[in-house]
Amino acid sequence: MLSQGAGFTTRTALIVALGGFLMGFDASVISGVVGFIEVEFSLSKLELGWSVASLALAATFAMMVSGPLSDRFGRRPVLKVAAALFAVSALASAMATSFPMLVTARIVGGLGVGMALIIAPMYIAEISPAADRGRMVSLNQLNIVVGISIAFFSNYLILRLGQSEAEWAAALRLGEWNWRWMLGLEIAPAILYFFCLYLVPESPRWLMMQGRQAEATRILAQVSNPDQARIEIDSIMESLESDRVHASEQLRLAALFGKPMRLVLAIGLTVAVLQQITGINSVFFYAPMIFEQSGIGTDAAFMQAVLVGLTNLVFTLFALALIDRVGRKPLLLFGVTGIAVCMMLLAWGFNAATYTLSPDAVATLPTAIDRMQLESLQGTVYTSDVSFRSAAIESLGASTFQEFESQLTSAAININPSLILVGILGFVACFAISIGPVMWVLFSELFPNRIRGIAISFVGLVNSAVSFLVQLLFPWQLANLGNAGTFFIYGVFAVLGLLMIVRLLPETRGKSLEELEAILVVS
After folding, report:
1. What is the pLDDT of residues 28-44, one digit of tens each?
2. What is the pTM of this model?
3. What burial class does residue 424 get, using C-beta atoms within 10 Å of its C-beta: 0-12 exposed, 13-18 middle, 19+ buried?
4. Domain 7-200+250-350+418-520, CATH among 3.30.200.20, 3.50.50.60, 1.20.1250.20, 3.30.420.10
């Protein structure tokens, strides 16, 4: 049951969580773009990875500074800057005429992503009562997955409309400028977010840090009731007074690495690394590419990417319903176990695939491919995607293979594509019901008031840095380690993370931020 004042809290949280929507859309819309820009700008695999990962690199930098900036200027002003950056990035990305220009625009968007990713859940945690905090903070994760789903769907819709004969689609040049329209659609929600932020108050805990007790009390009274607000104010004042006592002994950044914070920091770092090292952004940002590797073709790959977004959305809703009932740790144990199983299933499925170009298969290929160059490939059975790719590049040349990789793979592969679809959707479901939303709830709960801003920035920095490496290296991994080897590595990391969760993580459900500080921080 929601607490008194839940209507005000929910409205405020939903507005702030629009930053999550923009983050999810901005990050995942690139999944439909990579295949087109790889050909248009003649990108290598590492350059392709850089076009995706540059956003995460910029987000990593933004996470380093957004927490301290929000401590100084407030949570709401930083979110307004993030909204403006999203709008500028969308426009510049859509108008990019070169690879460096596109990357620069993506970096601008990454700054907005980093700010929103850190500040939105922090703000929501600080304005929500303990009984509703998990659900309220998870609204940000819900909006992230809605943004991801909308990005997948809009990519698919633009692709199909660009192939249609509709006059208005031709007038908008959806076929010729498909990837530009995919990137440019973000302008509208970014502008909406900027103006909606004028409707939310500043964080009451931040106001208390500035000595503005009357404003903080008035906001907390809307969250619950005047009596509960006074109790909350007293609790915050006691926590801040304790912080002032410790402030003379050590700086806030130094305090994060001190002995009292060892358990909290170990938990935060474990969860931060685990959320990304198991490959979730490889799936979200390269979904059509992965599905094309199973031989289903470009249109079907985009359609299955839509299923990824829908699965992510549905199971995030389950997580919202369960996180304050079941608790954080049980969801993590269930979800990470499922992640490990699904990654091993994907590794097994791709490892069992074979690749053979028969004369009948060659006949189905586009006429732009020189049939004479394929003679050396016909009839040969390749037992891995790596060996088939190497042979095809040697026969056709890198540029021709790059342009027709999807068609060549579809013609040659012998695999169970349903198994790959089940593995990917199962992985996404397990992620969405566990470490996806739970990580940000834990980040908002684990750290004491005096260092919350800089602590969340630090663990968010680590999370984003791992995400950057995963996104950057994924195309290279597929080309050099193969699909089976890449997914097997992700599965091993999931098993290791599961063991760390069992050993380190306590339950945080139903406890106030000040109670958790007393439990987790060693005096």
Report:
1. 888 888 888 888 888 88
2. 0.74
3. buried
4. 1.20.1250.20
